[in-house]
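Researcher: Last one for today. Full complex below.
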Amino acid sequence: MSTKDKIMDVALHMFSERGYEAVSIRDICGEVGIKESTLYYHFKNKKDILDSLITRFKDHISGLLSHLGEMANIPSGKSKKSNAGTSDIVDNYMMDSYLFDPFCNLMIRLMIIEQFHNEEMRALYEKTMFTDPYDIYLKVFQALALQGTFTEAQVEAYVRRYHAYMTTLTFRYLLNGELTEARKKAYKKEVHALMKGEMI
Amino acid sequence: MSTKDKIMDVALHMFSERGYEAVSIRDICGEVGIKESTLYYHFKNKKDILDSLITRFKDHISGLLSHLGEMANIPSGKSKKSNAGTSDIVDNYMMDSYLFDPFCNLMIRLMIIEQFHNEEMRALYEKTMFTDPYDIYLKVFQALALQGTFTEAQVEAYVRRYHAYMTTLTFRYLLNGELTEARKKAYKKEVHALMKGEMI
Amino acid sequence: MSTKDKIMDVALHMFSERGYEAVSIRDICGEVGIKESTLYYHFKNKKDILDSLITRFKDHISGLLSHLGEMANIPSGKSKKSNAGTSDIVDNYMMDSYLFDPFCNLMIRLMIIEQFHNEEMRALYEKTMFTDPYDIYLKVFQALALQGTFTEAQVEAYVRRYHAYMTTLTFRYLLNGELTEARKKAYKKEVHALMKGEMI
Amino acid sequence: MSTKDKIMDVALHMFSERGYEAVSIRDICGEVGIKESTLYYHFKNKKDILDSLITRFKDHISGLLSHLGEMANIPSGKSKKSNAGTSDIVDNYMMDSYLFDPFCNLMIRLMIIEQFHNEEMRALYEKTMFTDPYDIYLKVFQALALQGTFTEAQVEAYVRRYHAYMTTLTFRYLLNGELTEARKKAYKKEVHALMKGEMI
DNA sequence: TATGAATGAGGTTTCATTCAT
DNA sequence: CATGAATGAAACCTCATTCAT
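Model: Here's the assembly. Have a good evening.
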């Protein structure tokens, strides 16, 4: 990993634990193993590290969303197979590539901290934690409705419900202490249980 | 308001916006209108302000819980009237005296920020945002079940669902930007709508 | 003991350990058990405590010296008895009432610390640790010479030697760590041994 | 001289006059001509300056002692010439390289101040002002005894006496006010006079 | 790329002191 | 006598940053 990447990695870990302001350049450099003056070769200033992280996060998110968009455009004439497919979307995209992804998970934590006093962060947080997921779930449930799993009239209520479960479980299990494999597994299992038990 | 209370008030507002570490004694004193040295007459050190806030919060919470405990012991032989009563518990205690309460709301925000690196905060956050509310809802729904609103078998699922809605809405509307009267009203309305629409 | 005396007592203990500047009003008041503002009822300011101590010390010293002066004027026609008497002077005055006296001992320690940067203290230190003792020993040895213990010609050399022993032992055993009874006893014994062994 | 050395030099001068605690970082930096923040580039904290001085002093001392040890091993078959040699040891090592040495002299003053409340300092002070010198004088006088200057039986008494003279004169003339060339000269002369006058 | 050396601004805290009660 | 409340100054130290090498 390049020095620049190492800096971003260490910075994100620290920012997401203690908040941007509470982390010092010294803290970061100490962990990376470079002198403070060296950091300024790679970044204009402290803010620049944060900005780079945000940019990288936005790119990651829009990558995910565009992937998802392509998927949605595939004609749904795929019978049963695609049923599994649609909820796999949630597993693969929402979980594996987003909530469970180390980079994204830490970015979410950082956003949660910063959104209280940073409007840019608030907007991003709102979008990536509430708006986007809702839209994704909506698409998924609409696809499921097309497959006859349930009626179109039920879609909105189901989406709301699913979104509520996912959000609560996320805050409770994924944005708390360290994100271990055990926690991910437990989270996934509980989501699937709720999906089957209360969604039909 | 005494100087000490003013300090705690200002400190909480700032801590809950920017996090404990990012707020300086200078910031607090500037807002309160005292010299920094004066603050140290009232508090041993910066940490002491935080500790005092936490103590006050814990007292507030345990006050609420004990009140609630007394309520639960009142025999439920009150027909329809008490139905309204049980969900009033949620309105009065969970909302008006907790989520909407200016002090508690800011303490929750502060806990959210600090829990990422402070184990004491994490435990308190887990308890006051997930464990305690769940237990409260459980009591309320058990009372409702006794009144025949729904079967006992349904209680657990309903509690889970209600908790999920409440939590998600709380994070989305009450722990975001400023807590206005409009937001509180909207929140209450939406909760009631969900309650009636999806809980029967 | 009056509050004022308690303050002086505590102050002297602290000053003689850590030096005047390094001891704070807070330290003193904390130990005495009063608030800082109370101290200013008894003393004009911090310097005033030190000045009071110095005044008290000077009074003590001049009391000792005038006592000693009276003794010296007593005609020495007392044969053997007065021999013991003259060296009792050293025991009673130099040791019991000066070097071993808790107040004086601590004042000497304080002077040692302060004399490095305080001319008033340097003068007092020079006088009470070198000049005065030398003069006292001189008187004692002159009395001893009159009794024929040794010749007048030897007096000066004996005084120099005795002074050197006393001073060295004092710095080594009495101005070091806590002044315990054991240390005093050991000191006295060693002085007497040297006196007998090397002074004839 | 490097900035770091300049800091240590200035710090020692100030510490040895007013005591470690009473000297502020500001005082030191003002004299050195740097900003306070610069000092923290060279030293971890204030204590680190003191520790560095102590380390340097201990190194210096052990350098002297090991030199002295080598000397002692040289066979004494050198007749009269070596007589002068043995007491030159005292002149060169105890005086020129220790008591008169600007660095050591100031360190001794510092130790005297600090030993009253700092056990590490007390031990160092005891060793370098009483124990080590006694051992050195013992070796010198034993060498002189071998040359027949006096009998072996007299050695211990002579060492005690010499040590007492040296110590007293040191406290009186070398650890008092500024250490001028005149004072050094006077001190040396007086020591030599005593040596010749009372030691035969 | 990386570092050594420096800095102004600001951080938390302690200092001696005052003054009304 | 004693305290509660306040303060300006100064203590030690950390901050992000710069710049020559």
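The mean pLDDT of chain D is 90. Chains D and A do not touch (no CB pair under 8 Å).
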